[in-house]
Amino acid sequence: MKEKSKRERSKNLNDDSIEKIVGILDGWAGSLTWNTLITEIELHLKEKYTRQTLAKHTRIKSAYNLTKERISNDTDTKSKGSVEIQALQQIITNLEAKNARLHRENQDLLAQFARWSYNTYLKGISKEELDKVLPNINR
After folding, report:
1. In the prediction, which pLDDT does 56 show?
2. pLDDT reading at 62 higher than 70
3. In the predicted model, is pLDDT for residue 121 greater than 80?
4. What one-character-per-residue DSSP string does 42-88 give?
5. How far apart are CA 67 and CA 50, in angstroms?
6. Longest CA span, the chain
7. What is the pLDDT of residues 29-38, one digit of tens each?
8. Boundaries of every domain in the chain
9. What residues contact 80, with CB distance under 8 A and at least 6 apart?
10. Which whole number is the average pLDDT over 8-15?
11. How many CB atoms lie within 10 A of CB 66?
């Protein structure tokens, strides 16, 4: 008879899962902790990850920190107006959060590109070598 393991391991985070998690954070309202995020991820993705696993991924950690910052700066927590206006305000808030996250990710990628450019320059790799066309893949 086969024994049950103590805990089933969740699947590894891939780009699609990371995108869904940062999407959850973009739309986050209310108090945010790693435990509440883990619970929300478990509801949406049906996978349970640890804080350490989530924080290991730069996009998730950055989105988490941006969300914490946004929540702490959010002084007007109560919406006024009709249900339609509240829904539109929520959409705007989500889009602003996503825009801020994408801006931060873009800045990080530009910094990485500058680092890579400098390192390739130090190694003597020319621009022409870097701009070579990728070979075709026969599948």
Report:
1. 93
2. yes
3. yes
4. HHHHS----HHHHHHSHHHHHHHHHHHHHHHH----S--S-HHHHHH
5. 18
6. 63
7. 889 999 999 9
8. 15-128
9. none
10. 83
11. 21
Give the separation between CA 105 and CA 118, rounded to whole angstroms.
20
Backbone phi, psi, residue 82, to 5°: -75, 170
**d(Cα 80, Cα 47) in Å, to the nearest integer?**
36
Residue corresponding to tokens 């994408």: 102
- Residue 4 — very low, low, confident or very high, per pLDDT cuts 50/70/90? very low
Distance (Å) of CA 60 to CA 27, 46, 57, 65, 93? 14, 17, 6, 9, 19
Contact between 63 and 57 (Cβ < 8 Å): no
**Rounded-to-integer distance, Cα 70 and Cα 22, Å:** 14
How many C-beta neighbours within 10 Å does residue 76 have?
A: 7
Interacting residues of 107 by C-beta distance below 8 A, sequence separation 6+: none
